[in-house]
Design brief:
Length: 801
């Protein structure tokens, strides 16, 4: 009776896991192995055969030939793989994304549902998530199941395949796999020359990624994407839906676009693709419906707002759609205006096509649940949820579900962390995904970064947890660490160390944001926040302790591949320490303190040059984006790369307090703080506190100017309501070779109101003056009243005639 129950349970297990296994047979890999494809097979079938051959040779096969199916194989000892072909007698219709393999004696059949265009190149096919490559998925499933292959990162160096002399296969086995969700996405599209090459001038010559190198990295990323069996079941378009609207409609319909605090519509030309819409304007709704109908009124249509914190509409009608609580700033809650907007669009569309589905983001300042509005058409909206790293996914999804959200997908920026530091967030990413899975997800789309080796583990966990949803974090962690051989426990301890530190750092970030009354839009803003005050989150001991953990692995008898991988981790951790040293010194210089930025900069660059092949980073992104602010402070670096900062020689001064730093300005008597009260297009401004007497707020000293030249000065300010301070005064003081200073002019700003105002003045520098200083003074007012200043600019407008 016990045996019967055991057999029954075993059969149930096999059925549940889509496989039927009978008997076992051992094939020696030193025998010739045949891989057969059809003569006119697809690009994917050919590539699947090549991938199978590559991995069999890595596993220990002596010889592996690719031929055509019409070639007769007579020996029952020859292991033969049939690519893109089902076993004789199979006549079932394949499901969307379905992959299968079947074993019949010495014959292995690998096939799947392929849907690709014959006009596309291999790289194009691999890079399109909706291209269905079932045969390729079948090959990767077979390699993972039968040879325990793991792909821990893109490229051949990321392939883990232990050597073996035999391959044990059942005499009969059937395997079936289907993508578990409509979207199984982790983005790998950042290796693009059009994004990277414009950043080259900021990068030391020895570290510049060439065009060919970028293309190769891009291909390897796409291959890794397929090896992890990621993709989508159908094509779904979304993201930044209105990027071309300003170019199309900005001149004829400026009223369709967001009004800034100065009362102007639209953004500067360099931000035109980030323009926000005037959501209260019904003509905007009508135009969206018109464009949708002109495309044939398809079932799915993209209405995701353009990205960025710039340009949200301040007109009275849009402001009336918001539901803010007392004390909240403009950016604290913009959700209700957007839900109202989406409801109006869908309400018109369903009358034309009842099954239409509009896709949009729950993101940025509109990711918090609405307070007044509800989703009126749950069946006709697909929401891409973008929670912050330290927010509760389950709480967020549940709140939106209660307000009508029905079709949702998870689209976090948790992998948009371009940092030299190990963040230790892999377990949190996993847990947040599991919390989201308690709801019926349409799928996932994790945005990511470019060539960031400190994210190898996080990328692996994210990809595997999406496809292998039954696996616990510990199982996936053990899978990854096992690729380090006998050093696996050491590597596991290393990541656990950074995981503990990462959780502590998240709490610190949240605390700092609370103190500053700030919020982050998404997880990608964690790194800029941490880099601004690196010493608050890391110390030299953190990196040294992590290195000590890894050094224990050197005492073990490791195989060559394990030793190489362990050494890479040690070098990456040393790179993190040198990056930390540089950032701390750069921040000291920002604060005007004694520093060693020049020696730290040189040490870091030289280390990167020495270990560039081992680290294999996209250096342009680090130098020109993540760390750019700090590199521009190093004179050694600027000379080393021969970079001239002031491309526009006419600009004397440009300060836009869009980061919480004084940007070269000095704090004086009545300076209060950097705030999140928005200026024209920024999140931050300088706040000056009024007193009963006029007081000094901020000053900038010793601008070098050219005698006789004419300059234009401008700034934005907000005096607020009638009971605010009397005025804001800008005093310009000049000094010449005689070192005697005198007042050149005073500029008074007195206009009050709820919108920001712009002030400007044109002035000529006297012949005996070669430098000037600006002082902002706040006129008398009641205690606690404030003035905000931003966008301070001074430039030459014409030469002396």
């Amino acid at each position: 009776m016990f045996k019967k129950l055991f057999v029954l349970k075993y059969l149930i297990f096999l059925i549940l896991f889509g496989s039927t296994i009978l008997c076992a047979k051992e094939f020696k890999l030193d025998n010739n192995i045949k891989i057969l494809i059809r003569k006119n097979c697809s690009t994917i079938d050919k590539f699947a055969a090549e991938e199978l051959k590559k991995h069999l040779l890595l596993a220990g096969a002596k010889k592996c030939d690719i031929g055509h199916v019409d070639k007769k194989i007579t020996s029952p000892l020859v292991l033969t793989f049939y690519i893109g072909q089902a076993y004789p007698g199979f006549d079932k219709k394949l499901q969307n994304t379905e992959a299968r393999y079947a074993i019949r004696g010495n014959k292995v059949y690998l096939w799947g549902e392929n849907r690709i265009s014959s006009r596309l190149t291999l790289k194009q096919i691999l890079g399109i998530p909706s291209a269905r490559c079932g045969t390729l998925s079948a090959v990767y499933a077979f390699l993972a199941d039968k040879l325990a292959v793991k792909w821990i990162r893109p490229g051949d160096s990321g392939i883990y395949c232990s050597k073996t002399s035999t391959l044990n296969l059942a005499d009969t086995e059937d395997y079936k796999w289907v993508m578990p969700m409509n979207m199984c996405g982790v983005r790998v599209y950042w290796w693009r020359n059009r994004l990277i090459q414009p950043l080259t001038r900021f990068t030391p010559e020895k570290l510049r990624c060439s065009v060919d190198s970028v293309d190769e990295h891009s291909l390897q990323d796409f291959i890794w994407f397929r090896r992890m069996r990621l993709g989508t079941k159908s094509r779904i378009r979304y993201g930044h839906a209105f990027g071309k609207w300003w170019k199309k409609y900005g001149q004829i319909h400026p009223e369709w676009f967001g009004m800034n605090p100065n009362g102007k519509r639209g953004l500067p030309i360099r931000y035109s693709k980030r323009n926000k819409l005037c959501l209260s304007n019904n003509q905007v709704v009508d135009q969206i419906i018109k464009e949708w109908q002109e495309k044939g009124a398809p079932e799915r249509w993209n209405i995701c707002p353009n990205d960025g914190s710039l340009g949200y509409c301040r007109c009275e009608d849009c402001m009336a759609l918001d539901c803010r609580k007392k004390g909240e700033t403009f950016y604290d809650h913009l959700t209700d205006r957007y839900v109202n907007f989406w409801n109006r669009i869908v309400g018109k569309a369903v009358k034309i096509r009842p099954d239409v589905k509009f896709i949009t983001y729950v993101y940025s300042y509109y990711r918090f649940p609405p307070r007044r509005e509800k989703i009126k058409y749950p069946d006709n909206m697909i929401l891409g949820m973008v929670p912050m790293m330290f927010e509760d996914n389950e709480k967020m999804f549940k709140e939106w579900q209660e307000l009508g959200a029905k079709h949702v997908f998870l689209r976090p920026n948790d992998l948009c962390i371009s940092s030299s530091f190990f963040m230790g967030l892999e377990k949190r990413i996993y847990d947040k995904f599991k919390a989201s899975m308690r709801f019926k997800l349409f799928g996932t789309d994790y945005d990511g970064g470019c060539g960031i080796r400190t994210l190898d583990f996080a990328y692996y966990i994210t990809a595997r947890m999406i496809v292998d949803q039954e696996k616990s974090f510990e199982e996936l962690e053990n899978d990854y660490c096992s690729t380090y051989g006998k050093a696996a426990p050491v590597v596991k301890e290393f990541y656990a160390y950074y995981r503990k530190l990462g959780e502590t750092n998240l709490k610190k970030v949240a605390s700092q944001l609370t103190l500053k009354n700030r919020q982050l839009l998404d997880s990608s803003q964690l790194i800029p926040e941490i880099l601004r005050n690196t010493h608050l989150y890391y110390s030299q001991d953190d990196f040294k302790n992590a290195t000590e953990i890894l050094e224990k692995g050197k005492q073990l008898k490791l195989d060559q591949n394990s030793k190489k991988r362990l050494n890479e981790l040690i070098i990456l951790n040393e790179h993190a320490l040198k990056t930390y040293d540089f950032l701390v010194e750069a921040q000291k210089k920002q604060l005007g303190r004694k520093n060693n930025i020049e020696s730290a900069a040189k040490a870091l660059v030289k280390f990167r040059e020495k270990e560039s092949k081992t680290i294999d980073w996209c250096w342009q992104y680090l130098f020109a984006r993540t760390e750019k602010t700090y590199w521009l402070l190093s004179n050694w670096y600027l000379k080393y790369i021969n970079l001239k900062i002031n491309e526009d020689k006419d600009i004397l001064l440009w300060s836009s307090f869009d980061l919480p730093a004084m940007d070269g300005w000095r704090k004086r008597a009545q300076f209060s703080k950097i705030t999140n009260k928005t200026a024209s297009f920024d999140q931050f401004s300088v706040e000056l506190t009024a007193s009963r007497k006029e007081g000094l707020g901020i000053s900038y000293h010793g601008f070098k100017v050219e005698p006789g030249k004419i300059y234009k000065l401008s700034y934005d300010y907000l005096l607020g309501k009638e009971n605010s301070p009397t005025y804001l005064r800008l005093r310009c003081v000049g000094r010449g070779n005689q070192k005697k200073s005198r007042v050149l002019f005073n500029l008074y700003s007195r206009k009050k109101g709820k919108y920001w105002q712009s002030e400007e003045k044109t002035f000529k520098v006297p012949a005996d003056i070669n430098n000037i200083t600006f002082y902002f003074n706040v006129g008398p007012g009641r205690k606690g009243q404030v003035v905000n200043i931003d966008k301070i600019s001074c430039r030459i407008i014409k030469d002396k005639k």
